[in-house]
Each structure stands twice: as structure tokens, then as C-alpha cells.
């Protein structure tokens, strides 16, 4: 029997388990492949013995409806810049890709299916260039991977955000308040944009369009008449003012090089409350955070994720490596991983949904 190793890296995402199940079921039907899972991204390869588990019908039964990943995940040990503590306590980052490629081969695996976002697919490409048979599956709630129309998990994240936004609209209206809801989106504002249109926001703030606080205040003033009115704002965690920086903090451990974003809605609230032209109304802020990542994936994401899992296995079975599964024009296809990571999927200012948003009166603070 040939063997496939499956890894889930980066942040968790609704639909990950559906991909795993899709891979397993397609492989099982072929009767020529076994499927194993590497625990906590590729970190399981470092354990002694390696933390890898054989996927079975029992392990994968019904997991498509569950959030998270049965293989667990990690985004703090990038093998391209792996943190190694030196004798003086400092951190040195080393490239462990060649070592990991050899480990996967030594364990007898014929291929690796790496499920993850842009960072994980950069690792996929590096492993492929080091002689490993790799297939990538695009995963991110931010929808920020190019070369695919959609990534699984995004639709569920937007639905969660929209449900929460609907609840804030009613309380904003009841109290004549300005409500600010912060959603995920480090560098791309796809969740914010879709939620703003779905929820009927007055203002949408995204990383791609730096905002002018004066224009936001002007927009708010139009909504209030003698303190009567209300405003709902959606803001992505990576949004920033003109000439300003994102709101975040360094990770608690030196081994984690990711800036931890969060709190931009509170920073905006403070700016609004201090602005001399701001109406004398109450401003409240809400951070959704990891709520957007959790819970049961929507039917669409289960279907997309399952389909991507099957397609990933088919690429492996055909020996078509160095490719990432892609969803384009309502069809499943594949693209070179190198092409998929070449360009980040930002929201362009001329995107049709930005035009739609402006046409229905949503302001972007520009």
C-alpha cells in the first residue's frame, strides 16, 4: 500500500475536517492508498516517536460537521525560519525544510497533502523544491489566497460575522448608538466587506483602504439628527488610519514572530469619542475574534472542503505534484503552488463588491 501524510497548518478553520474526510474516503475507495495524519501541522515529525496517526473509518466518521481539525494545528514553528534557542537565550531561525523532507520520505510516505493558507503553501512549495511529492489545499477564513475564487471556511466566517452584526444593529437602533464590530482580516478585508454588504453597515473599514477619521465623523453626523439615529461600523483587524499603523502587540513568546492583531475597534472608538466634531452619542465596540473560526461549517463549506479533499487525492494518485487545489468559475481544478503564492489576494478598490457597497451608501472612510 502507498502512503499519504496529511497536515493541517496555520489557524484552524471551519471545513478542515471535511477535507481530511474527503481525502480518506477517496483513498479508501481506491484500495491502493493509506492515509496518515501528522499532528499539529508538521510539528508531529519532531516527536520521538513521531506523532502521526493512521486515519481510519472510525476516526473520520462524521467529522465533516465538526469545527477545528482532528489533527490539531500550529502556526508558531515555521520550518522555513524555525526558532532555535541559543545558549545565551537568544533565538536563531534556521531552515529545516531539507530535514523535514527527508523525515517524511524516511517514514515511508509517498506524498504529503498540506492543508493551509499562504504561509503553509509557501512551506509546501519549499518542500516540493526539496524533492518531496506535495499537493496543497487552500485554507483560510480570510480568503486571501490567490489563484482560487474561494477558500473553504470563508463563507462560514462571513455567516458568523453577519449573524453577530445583525444583533448589534438592533441594539444600536434601540439606544441611538454607534456600534463598531471588529472582524478578522490581517491584510485583506474580504470578511469585513462581505459582512458590511450582508448586514447593511453604514461604514466598512479595511486594510486596503486607509481611513480618514474626519470623513468617518462626517458620515456619522449625517446619520444623527438631534441625537436620534444610529450607525453600525464593520472594521477589519488590520485596518489603519491614513499614515498610521495597525493595532497589535508582539507575541508572548519570542518563538512566535506573528504580531497579534486585535483592538483596532477600541482605538477607533477612542478616536471618535475625542473628535471635536463627533455628535454627543454613545459609542460601543465589539471584537468577534476567534468566534469566526469556530463551530460547525456551513453546508457550502462542507461541500467545498470535501470536494477539495477528493481533488487533492486525485492529484496524488495521478502523480501531479507541486500543485494546489483551486476552485475557479464553479469548477475544481489545480494550479502550481508557486503560482498560488506569487500574489496575495487583496481586495482591489475596483472590485465589484466595493462598487456595490458604495452604490448602496456604505462609506470606506476615504
> What is the top-level CATH class of the largest domain?
Alpha Beta
How much helicity do the residues have? Answer: 25-40%
Report the CATH topology name of the largest domain: Rossmann fold
Q: Estimate the strand proportion.
A: 15-25%
Average pLDDT over all residues: 93
How many discrete structural domains?
Answer: 2
CATH architecture annotation of the largest domain: 3-Layer(aba) Sandwich
SSE order: EHEEHEEHEHEHEHEHEEEHEHEEHH
Gyration radius (Cα, Å) is 22 Å
Main sheet specs: 7 strands, mixed
- Spatial shape: elongated
Low-confidence stretches: none
Across the major sheet, the strand order is 3-2-1-6-7-14-15
How many strands appear in the DSSP assignment? 15
Structure description:
- This protein has 366 residues and is α/β, with parallel strands linked by helices.
- The protein starts with a strand and ends in a 7-residue tail after the last helix.
- Helix 7 links the parallel strand 9 and strand 10.
- It folds into two domains: 2-152 and 297-340, Rossmann fold; 157-293, Phosphofructokinase domain (Rossmann fold, 3-Layer(aba) Sandwich).
- Helix 1 packs across helix 9 (299-317), helix 3 (97-106) packs across helix 4 (118-129) and helix 6 (190-199) runs parallel beside helix 11.
- It contains eleven helices and 15 strands.
- It has helices at residues 16-30, 57-60, 97-106, 118-129, 154-175, 190-199, 213-223, 264-274, 299-317, 337-340, 352-359, and strands at 2-8, 33-38, 52-54, 82-85, 91-94, 111-116, 134-138, 178-183, 203-205, 231-236, 248-249, 260-261, 283-287, 323-328, 331-336.
- It has a seven-stranded mixed sheet with strand order 3-2-1-6-7-14-15, sandwiched between helices. A four-stranded parallel sheet has the order 9-10-8-13, sandwiched between helices. Strands 4-5 form a two-stranded antiparallel ribbon.
- Helix content is 34%, strand content 19%.
Amino acid at each position: 500500500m502507498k502512503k499519504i501524510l496529511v497536515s493541517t497548518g496555520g489557524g484552524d478553520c471551519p471545513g478542515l475536517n471535511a477535507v481530511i474526510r474527503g481525502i480518506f474516503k477517496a483513498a479508501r475507495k481506491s484500495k491502493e492508498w493509506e492515509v496518515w495524519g501528522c499532528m499539529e501541522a508538521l510539528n508531529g515529525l519532531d516527536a520521538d516517536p513521531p506523532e502521526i496517526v493512521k486515519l481510519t473509518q472510525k476516526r473520520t466518521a462524521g467529522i465533516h460537521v465538526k469545527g477545528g481539525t482532528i489533527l490539531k494545528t500550529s502556526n508558531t514553528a515555521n520550518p522555513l525560519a524555525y526558532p532555535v534557542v541559543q545558549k545565551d537565550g537568544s533565538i536563531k531561525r534556521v531552515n529545516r525544510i531539507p530535514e523535514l523532507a527527508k523525515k517524511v520520505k524516511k517514514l515511508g510516505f509517498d506524498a504529503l497533502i498540506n492543508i493551509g493558507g499562504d504561509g503553509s503553501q509557501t512551506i509546501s512549495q519549499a518542500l516540493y523544491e526539496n524533492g518531496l511529492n506535495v499537493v496543497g489545499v487552500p485554507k483560510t477564513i480570510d480568503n486571501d489566497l490567490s489563484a482560487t475564487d474561494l477558500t473553504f471556511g470563508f463563507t462560514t466566517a462571513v455567516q458568523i460575522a453577519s449573524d453577530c452584526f445583525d444583533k448589534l444593529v438592533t441594539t444600536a437602533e434601540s439606544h441611538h448608538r454607534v456600534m463598531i464590530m471588529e472582524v478578522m482580516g490581517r491584510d485583506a478585508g474580504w470578511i469585513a466587506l462581505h459582512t458590511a454588504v450582508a448586514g447593511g453597515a453604514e461604514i466598512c473599514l479595511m486594510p486596503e483602504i486607509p481611513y480618514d477619521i474626519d470623513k468617518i465623523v462626517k458620515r456619522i453626523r449625517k446619520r444623527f439628527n438631534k441625537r436620534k439615529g444610529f450607525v453600525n461600523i464593520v472594521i477589519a483587524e488590520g485596518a489603519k488610519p491614513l499614515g498610521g499603523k495597525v493595532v497589535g502587540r508582539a507575541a508572548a513568546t519570542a518563538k512566535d514572530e506573528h504580531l497579534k492583531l486585535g483592538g483596532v475597534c477600541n482605538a477607533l472608538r477612542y478616536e471618535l469619542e475625542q473628535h471635536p466634531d463627533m455628535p454627543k452619542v454613545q459609542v460601543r465596540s465589539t471584537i468577534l475574534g476567534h468566534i469566526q473560526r469556530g463551530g460547525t461549517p456551513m453546508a457550502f463549506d462542507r461541500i467545498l472542503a470535501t470536494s477539495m479533499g477528493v481533488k487533492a487525492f486525485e492529484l496524488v494518485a495521478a502523480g501531479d505534484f507541486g500543485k494546489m487545489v483551486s476552485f475557479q468559475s464553479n469548477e475544481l481544478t489545480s494550479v502550481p503552488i508557486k503560482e498560488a503564492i506569487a500574489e496575495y489576494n487583496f481586495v482591489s478598490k475596483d472590485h465589484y463588491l466595493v462598487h456595490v457597497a458604495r452604490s448602496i451608501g456604505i462609506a470606506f472612510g476615504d
